Amino acid sequence: MDTTHKDRRNAISTILYCRTSTVEQTLDHQLTQAQQAGFKIDEVIADPGSSGVSTKLRDRPQGKRLFDKLRSGDVLVVRWVDRLGRNYEDVTTVIREFMEMGVTIRTVINGMTFDGSTGDPIQKAVRDAVIAFMAATAQSQVEITKAAQKAGIDAAKNDDTKYRGRKPSYDRRTYDAIVDLVGKQMGDSAIARTTGVSRQAVIRIRNNPDLALKALQRWTG
What we know:
about 50% helix, about 220 residues, Rossmann fold, about 10% strand, alpha/beta, elongated, five-stranded mixed β-sheet
């Protein structure tokens, strides 16, 4: 009997889940951090950062795949617990759900390990308290960052020479090409592939070309 496929299916996997957004949070950087911390990663699953800040893990493009792929005995590695949810409730719920599945969660930062193997009520209480503390800290950091960003934007808005908003991912030539292709009834995904910009940028230009052009002009003069 050929048991190769069965053995591969039942083998324990170590999966790194990443959110990628800033220079410090690229896929390569997070993978390198995990490897330097001693993790031997079998597979990396990653979502763009914009999909993780306001979306539950199950609803993220690759988050659902993560739930489908993990099996009892697998190890889920994350940079920190904030990768797993939008807020305190999300993070604690996801961690408990994974533990109930028999998955062990390990963090690169602080080297924390969470699993459901213990049956001792005191150890459970300590574990759950640590999870709650880390989830609360993660939410607090997100709220502090948002508040700081808003304060910076509000201050910059008072100085018209400084505030320009987020720099567009397209230049004038690309903008004109997108507008032309929109006029030819080409689909958003096809336009994105043709022009090399994100589908979200194409949609913004399609929905409000004048606003998109003004955003570009603030950066190009």
